[in-house]
Design goal:
Blueprint (H helix, E strand, L loop, with lengths): L8 H9 L4 H19 L9 H14 L25 H11 L27 H4 L12 H26 L24 H7 L4 H22 L11 H23 L10 H4 L6
Length: 279
């Protein structure tokens, strides 16, 4: 065979018409031409006899420089090989079959086995190029529309509740203050009822200045004590515990002062002396 392998034009045209790339079509057309040339010269394409297999093995070892692995620089430019010294897949398979022709046993050194067949790598696409996976949004939302929309709906709900309550509940201002007439039950509005209840147990300086001051200082120090940036309730155990304690404590004081205090701000049971609660 000549050094330059001619393409099998029929195979090349058929593969191009089937939509194969020019590179694949040229490679397969060259392989078909090499195969036809070998058949024309009377060479066998199947497994070689043991004598020819041993001869092919010796040639392979000598071409590899005795190291058992042929490098790219030491690869012989044999007849029928592709330009640049590369072997076609059919020629590689023929060499492997020739090397395994001596009884089906692979030689102990320098002989490629069937598990070492090389394959052409067309492309390596990273997973990110196939499917874009966006990171999960954690604890941040936009002010508009997420936050402001919720606040606006809450404003409408509270306005409707106050409108309904003012329609059904009569809350007059009462008569003018008369120093000669002291009401039997003198209570502060409900939002100050907690402070009035504290005055029943502590000195006015403690109930009116010290304890509220401590609460305000703790409220200002809360962001520096609990630095957890999460907005999920299950991740804010310290904040939840502090708010639950304060709400329960202050709500209990308001309920006691509103419903369990009678004339003279003394302790009464509602089912005994009536409900001492006025708007």
């Amino acid at each position: 065979m000549s050094d330059e392998v001619q393409l099998d034009q029929e195979v090349y045209d058929r593969l191009i018409s089937e939509g194969k790339s020019e590179r694949i079509a040229r490679a397969k057309a060259k392989a078909a031409a090499v195969r036809q040339a070998k058949i024309a010269e009377g060479q066998s394409l199947g497994p070689k006899p043991p004598e020819q297999a041993e001869k092919a093995l010796e040639e392979f070892r000598s071409s590899a420089g005795g190291g058992g692995v042929a490098t790219k620089a030491a690869a012989p430019a044999e007849s029928g090989a592709a330009p640049g010294g590369r072997l076609t897949p059919e020629e590689r398979a023929a060499r492997v079959q020739a090397s395994l022709g001596n009884g089906g046993e692979a030689p102990s050194r320098g002989v490629p086995t069937s598990s070492e067949h090389t394959h052409r790598l067309l492309a390596l696409v990273p997973p990110a190029g196939i499917q874009q996976v966006q990171s999960k949004q954690m604890d941040k939302v936009y002010t508009w529309p997420h936050l402001l929309l919720v606040e606006f709906v809450s404003l409408l709900a509270m306005g409707a509740l106050l409108l309904i309550a003012s329609f059904f509940l009569d809350a007059p201002l009462g008569s003018l203050a008369n120093p000669n007439e002291v009401p039997a039950i003198n209570k502060a509005p409900w939002y100050f009822m907690g402070l009035q209840e504290l005055l029943r147990y502590f000195h006015p300086m403690v109930a009116g200045v010290t304890l509220p001051g401590v609460f305000l200082v703790m409220l200002m120090a809360a962001p520096f004590i609990d630095k957890n940036p999460s907005a999920k309730p299950e991740n804010r155990k310290v904040a939840n515990l502090a708010f639950t304690f304060f709400a329960s404590f202050w709500g209990l004081l308001v309920l006691i002062g509103s419903f369990l205090r009678g004339p003279g701000y003394e302790w009464v049971w509602p089912w005994v002396e009536g409900l001492g609660f006025t708007l």
